[in-house]
């Protein structure tokens, strides 16, 4: 049997975890007065509430190699194989840790494949969903991994933060640039695809970002997600615009994981698989 192991940043819903017996290895977010262990989307609100109510900059921490090794040991002991899905390596060293952990368990390297999904949140979720379909269709681990590597090229997430404050706090945007941006109401639209994070456009206000975000979605998209972080007030408007453009499509809603949200704050976005 091929088991699925994911790190927590891929925003795997609780019911999906239970249905497919998926193992989750959690990243952590540290505050001065405690630790938040990233889990499933239904638990994100606790983190969101704390993030927007404090000026403190949280610190994210990847899982230890032993945490991965403990999960691998059970896979090997049960005589199974596994595929491990991790957040993009440009965002975190989690996939490196997951790979290192293979050497801690006898036989793990022959039974388990670690994937750097080059993605996060709903991008990664879409990749995992397709892998599960392949497993259910009887494909071998090698065949599933081959398809996963192709699907990595087909996913993208594009989002716009409500405020530049969180990028400034984390040092990803200078104070001068952030101040000028807030005065002029300039917002960056950020795209993440194949481990590359870029600013694809700057707009005057989040409201003006919504048409651009929706138009980024290709007509050929196989799956479409409307994404929200920390209760962005623009989420309803985004969903409405997506439904207007794709009236006959199922639009999935997703919450952006706390690890990513800790860097951008409240935001709206779209994700898709071509």
Oligomeric state of the chains present here: single chain
Per the CATH scheme, the topology name of the largest domain is Rossmann fold
Number of strands: 13
CA-CA gap between termini: 28 Å
**From the coordinates shown, what is the CATH architecture of the largest domain?**
3-Layer(aba) Sandwich
* Class from helix and strand fractions: alpha/beta
Question: Helix tally?
Answer: 12
CATH class of the largest domain: Alpha Beta
Order of helices and strands: EHEEEHEHEHHEHHEHHEEHEHEHE
Mean pLDDT equals 92
Placed side by side, the strands forming the largest sheet appear as 10-9-8-13-11-12
Beta fraction: 25-35%
For the largest beta-sheet, the strand count, sense and barrel status come to: 6 strands, mixed
Shape descriptor reads: globular
What value does the Rg take, in angstroms?
19 Å
Q: Helicity level, as a percent range?
A: 40-55%
How many domains? The number is 2
Low-confidence stretches: 172-181
Structure commentary:
By secondary structure, the protein is an alpha/beta fold. The chain folds into two domains: 2-153, Rossmann fold, CATH 3.40.50; 155-273, 2-Layer Sandwich (Hypothetical Protein Tm841, Chain: A,domain 3), CATH 3.30.1180.10. The chain has twelve helices and 13 strands. It has helices at 14-20, 44-52, 65-77, 94-101, 108-111, 121-136, 141-151, 165-169, 175-184, 206-216, 235-245, 258-264, and strands at residues 2-7, 23-25, 28-31, 34-37, 59-61, 81-86, 112-116, 155-161, 186-193, 196-204, 223-229, 251-255, 267-273. Helix 10 runs parallel beside helix 11 (235-245). The longest helix is centred in the middle third of the chain and has 16 residues, at 121-136. The protein is globular, with a radius of gyration of 19 Å.
